[in-house]
Amino acid sequence: MNINIIVVGKIKEKYMREGIQEFQKRLSRYCNLKIIEIDDEKAPENLSNKDMERVKEKEGKKILSKIPQNTFIISLEIEGKQFSSEELSKRVENLMVSGVNDMTFIIGGSLGLSEEVKTRSNLKLSFSKMTFPHQLMRLILLEQVYRSFRIMKGEPYHK
Fold first, then answer.
1. Which of 22, 23, 120, 158 lies most in the core, judged by the most C-beta atoms within 10 Å?
2. In which residues is S-adenosyl-L-methionine bound (predicted)?
3. Class of the CATH domain delimited by 2-152
């Protein structure tokens, strides 16, 4: 299984990079993982709605240019469907059984995802109605993907 994670922005905090590296190492037993970072657009605090859309569109074009061919696209969106860890694991397993061997998760920037990226997505996934920093979301996503594989394989993992 190939898993791509396209993210807007870089991780600056050392502790966050270390956590991400740990889950990358753990996941190497289960899949080929590739994290693709997209530069975020500079956006001052008080942007108009129109300017916010422009920023999301620019980031969206960069994201779309990095999506591999023939991949199942899962965008992380507050408005998306929520799953338990077991349900997410089952969903990933069902995709694999049905012949999907390439998945791409997309984490947008601080303003979210462009409509074009949302439209292109095969599954809109929400981890919560709460808003999380996209740097932290990367770590949470990796942990949940790891947990999904552990559940799939019937291996113990903290509940």
1. 23
2. 76, 108, 127-132
3. alpha beta
Residue 130 assigned to a binding site = yes
Token duo for residue 152: 């799939």
The reply to whether 129 sits in an annotated binding site is yes
Ligand-binding annotation for 128, yes or no, is yes
Question: Which residue in this structure is represented by tokens 């969206």?
Answer: 60
76 in a known ligand binding site: yes
- Going from the C-alpha of 121 to that of each of 25, 27, 77, 100, 103, the distances in angstroms are 27, 23, 10, 15, 11
Q: Strands 72-81 and 102-107: what pairing?
A: parallel
Residue 42 carries which DSSP code?
Answer: P
In the chain, the amino acid numbered 50 is K
Render pLDDT for 37-72 as a digit per residue (tens, 0 to 9).
999 888 778 888 899 999 999 999 999 999 999 999
Q: How far is CA 103 from the centre of its chain?
A: 10
Look up the pTM and report it: 0.94
DSSP 112: B
95 is in an annotated binding site: no
